[in-house]
Specification:
By secondary structure, the chain is an alpha/beta fold. The protein has a single domain, classed as Alpha-Beta Barrel (TIM Barrel). It is built from 10 helices and 12 strands. The strands form 2 sheets. It has an 8-stranded parallel barrel with strand order 1-4-5-8-9-10-11-12, surrounded by 9 helices. It has a two-stranded antiparallel sheet with strand order 6-7. Helix 2 runs parallel beside helix 3. The longest helix is centred in the middle third of the chain and has 18 residues. Bound molecules: ligand PBG. Ligand PBG binds next to helix 5. It catalyses: 2 5-aminolevulinate = porphobilinogen + 2 H2O + H(+).
Amino acid sequence: MVRENTLTVNDLIYPMFVTEGKAQKVEITSMPGCYRYSLDLLLKEIAEVFELGINAIALFPVIPENKKDDTGTQSYNPDGLIQQTVKAIKQAIPEIVVITDVALDPFTSHGHDGLVDENGTILNDPTVEVLVKMALSQAAAGADFVAPSDMMDGRIGAIRQALDAEGYINVGILAYSAKYASAYYGPFRDALDSAPKFGDKKTYQMDAANAKEALKEIELDIAEGADIIMVKPALAYLDIICRVKSATNLPVAAYNVSGEYAMIKAAAQMGWIDEKQVILESLTSMKRAGADLILTYFAKEVALMLM
Ligand code: PBG
């Protein structure tokens, strides 16, 4: 009766991995229970999770090495993997909210989220131009939200302007506004084979030691036209979620990332923790901190638990 926060299936966004080919369902070693699906099986899985009450999915493409290049040209191919996938999902289940990732790392041979010069420096503004093309191709395919996860400066404004100019006025932007340069992304990079081949992402993602900078980043994204603000990772950054929530009236999302998932799965497999209770406690803590939405690889399991 006096409980202040309740986790519900409406809070959940399910991140899913799509790969080329047919009849593929390959488990990700460092993310037990998560799979790379080919489109045919992905559609079946989405139908199942939609049935369970999950209203939104976030898609990530697994691009084969021979289709990656230095500038990520496959990212805006109108017939690319992600674009075809979005079209097929919206045809099969038009009601499900489809969120697409806007960043170059699945598509670049070097694994960075942006274009790099010969010294390995990230080129912010030229990258934003490619991100705009990518977002437009996803909107054309039918994405409901585009979600820039790249952390380039100025990309939210540029994408909003381009979407509006092309008539995609109802496509929303879920901005990865406060995204930290985190070691918790390790298993996700295994899933996509997208670990950076040189350097790290610390020139564009945030320093774990900073909190005020997160507020500056969200302020910029809000001014540029973001519809939902995200903090990522979640568990080690609950204070950031809390501060961000009190700094904005926009919905706040938290990304319960791959490393957070892997830690719980590993400890549970060893029999060292009560998996179900730890999952529910972790996700509830994100709601308590202020998250309105949670991207989590536990979404399907939690939907089943909450039934
Ligand atoms: C990259 C991207 C990453 C994640 C989502 N989009 C990894 C990175 O920034 O290197 C991580 C998600 C997770 O760990 O679950 N644009």
